Each structure stands twice: as structure tokens, then as C-alpha cells.
Amino acid sequence: MNPTIKRSNHKQKRLREAGTLNPHPEKVTDELFRKRSFFDRADLLQVKYEMLRCVEKGNRTVSKAAADFGFSRRHFYAIQKQFVELGLLGLVPDKRGPRSAHKLDDEVMRFVMVALDDNPALKATALARLIQQRFQRKVHPRSIEKSLARKKNSA
User: What are the pLDDT digits (tens) for 105-125?
Assistant: First the structure.
């Protein structure tokens, strides 16, 4: 296998894991990304940074840069604001999904802890059933396990 291809596949895998794989690399039409191997359309952070940089240097208008890098003007300004506020970290996309175990709030976790005090042998599946009965909330047993592990590690 060609080492360049292997390195590229590895990089794409790592970008995907980090949430920074560009979902639409084909939309990047900027000349640097077409002609120079250093520039990688699949690297969302690099694409965003170069888009901001070409406008900052005065090489292009916001509209032209956004189009050349596969973004809308509105998205350009959002990216610019995040970069001004947070630097390179602002270019990293936010993780999707819930930010915390929102179904397992303090009240539910107190209930779980009391249930475990009464019966330490209870498994997460049984706890999920008890939570469903008491709070009418469907909670995955793995979420309960993770929450208990966090609670244990913070104690």
C-alpha cells in the first residue's frame, strides 16, 4: 500500500474520531487546497482557519471566501466569532447530543442511591425499570452505570 494513502486513511480516521473531519470536502474549491498537498480539504480545522486567514489578509471578500471554502456567509461570521473568542479551539466543532445525563438528575440519582443502599445487588437493568416506574423516564442501563461510575470517581 502506498504510504501516502495509508497516512491519509489514518488521518481521516483520527479526524473523524475528533469530530473534525470535513463532511463536505468536495465543496472546498480554494486553489491552495486543489494544487498543494499540504492543504487537506478533509481537515475541517485547516479549512476554517485558511478561510478566515484569506479574508484577514484582504485577499478575498467574505462572500467569495465562504463560497471557496464550502460555507455560507452566516457560517463564516459564526466561525470568525468563535475564533476571536477562543482562538483555534473555537474552530473545533461542538460535540453533538446532550451535555450531561439530563434524565439522571439529582432527584433520580438520590432515588438510585437509596435503592442501592436497600439492595446493593441491584443491576443497572433493574434500576432502569425502577426509574421508569417511579419517574416515568426511560433510562438506558449503561447511562446509569456511567453515572454511578462518575459518582464513585468523584467521591
Answer: 999 999 999 999 999 999 999
